[in-house]
Amino acid sequence: MPNLKTDVLVVGAGPAGAMTAKWAAKSGARTLMLEKRQEIGSPVRCGEGMSKSWLAEVGIQPSSRWINVEVEGARIYSPAEKVLEINEKHAGNEVGYVVERDAFDKQLAIDAANAGAEVMLKTSAVELLRDDGRFVGVRAKQFGESFEIRAPVVVGADGFESQVGRWAGLPTNLQLRDMDSCLQYRMTNVDCDARYCDFFLGTVAPGGYVWVFPKGDGLANVGIGVQVSKIKSPADVKMYLDRWIAHHPGYAKGKTIDMVGGGVSISAPLKQTVTNGVMLVGDAARMIDPLTGGGIANGCIAGKLCGEVAAAAVAANDASKEFLQAYERGWRAKLEDKLYRNWLAKEKLCTLPDATFDKIIDALQDVKLEKLSVLNILKAVRGKYPEVTKEFEAFL
User: Fold this and answer.
1) Which long-range contacts (CB under 8 A, 24 or more apart) does 294-298 make?
2) pLDDT of the chain, 396 residues: tens digit per residue
């Protein structure tokens, strides 16, 4: 394999990477996107729920090729299974569509390629190249053959354990309380309501929640996220999920036809996501919402901005950390405040007993929230259970 040159090199072909590649190419930069696997979007490690309000902002056209179900909203269950129903408009980043995630990822890669980006599959970045204090590309491997890819701008879109970030010296360490261990079954013959995505809170999933995302015709993704600091063994995650299923007859009678597992970061966003010649985007930049564990929307919104700034840096012949600050400032203006507030809320919520979750859901039963946010929830709860909100005074 001969050495290659391009303007913008994107490492990782998930939603954030594909969106970065698309907008870098649309903005006039020669763009190359690497994917270490042989198939984009597979294996799926995702609950497959996402909102839809942001799609037009980044140029994604909804399609039956990747949409399974359009839901009306979400139902949030307290430990005593008091239920709060919220519609899609107010339900956050994980409600709107339930999708086939592999088909969705492939469509974003198609959009990037149609915009002019090149794609290399089964190609891993193994090292960042450095020249005169700047990062200028990667050493890559494809089918065991090593070669260089030179690019003035390298974008790490390689997940929350980002190697690109570590190689670039960007601080990417995670504490155990900032990670969830997740397991999900795809189940058939279950009694789910295709109008809603369901979320179950409390000690059924310590530090996280159980979710049910309907896929249609008695089919659903049934999964769990548990805070890593609250378990002794990875097997505990399966134990919690199996226990929940056993206590719910509509799911206990179902059959599991697929299983996926993995880790999700639930941390505050990184304090630094750019350096000379390098930017991080999506999960690599900790843009996953710490409360929901959802990252598709945030990764795509930031990816559009990342691609545009990358192309501008190439046009200006300036990929310095200072120039790339336009991306740092831009994504933080759009996303950081909510991400940081939700991380602080997550830190508190992980300490609450089941009785407090029951009070929170009970207090919200008769309240019409214009917008679902930590602040609005606490204001509503304070009216009925003021003692519950004492630990959350900083949010009020």
Assistant:
1) 294/47, 294/49, 294/50, 294/92, 294/93, 294/94, 295/16, 296/15, 296/46, 296/50, 296/93, 297/50, 297/51, 297/54, 297/93, 298/93, 298/335, 298/339
2) 789 999 999 999 999 999 999 999 999 999 999 999 999 988 777 788 888 889 999 999 999 999 999 998 889 999 999 998 887 665 555 568 999 999 999 999 999 999 999 999 999 999 999 998 889 999 999 999 999 999 999 999 999 889 999 999 998 878 888 889 999 999 999 999 999 999 999 999 999 999 999 998 899 999 999 999 999 988 999 999 999 999 999 999 999 999 999 888 889 999 999 999 999 999 999 999 998 888 999 999 999 999 999 999 999 999 999 999 999 999 999 999 999 988 988 888 888 899 988 988 888 877 766 566 667 777 777 877 788 777 676 665
Helix, coil or strand: residue 211: strand
The answer to whether the predicted template modeling score (pTM) of the entire model surpasses 0.85 is yes
The backbone torsions φ and ψ at residue 111, rounded to the nearest 5 degrees and listed phi first, read -60, -40
Which ranges of 229-295 would DSSP assign to H, the alpha helix?
Answer: 235-246, 249-252
What is the DSSP code (8-state) at residue 335?
I
CA separation for the pair 283, 225 (Å, rounded): 17
Rounded distance between C-alpha atoms, residue 90 and residue 183, angstroms: 26
What is the Cα 236 distance to its own chain's centre?
Answer: 23
CATH fold, domain 70-95+176-265, is D-Amino Acid Oxidase; Chain A, domain 2 (3.30.9)
> Cα separation of 87 and 57, whole Å?
21
Domain range annotation of the chain: 4-46+103-174+270-346, 70-95+176-265, 351-395
Residues 6+ apart with CB under 8 A from 217: none
4-46+103-174+270-346 to CATH, choices 3.50.50.60, 1.10.760.10, 3.20.20.80, 3.90.1150.30? 3.50.50.60
Nearest partner of 154 among 367, 313, 388, judged by Cα: 313
**How many C-beta neighbours within 10 Å does residue 166 have?**
14
- Mention every residue, 6+ apart, whose C-beta is less than 8 A from residue 367: 380, 383
DSSP letters, 4-38, are EE-SEEEE--SHHHHHHHHHHHHTT--EEEE-SSS
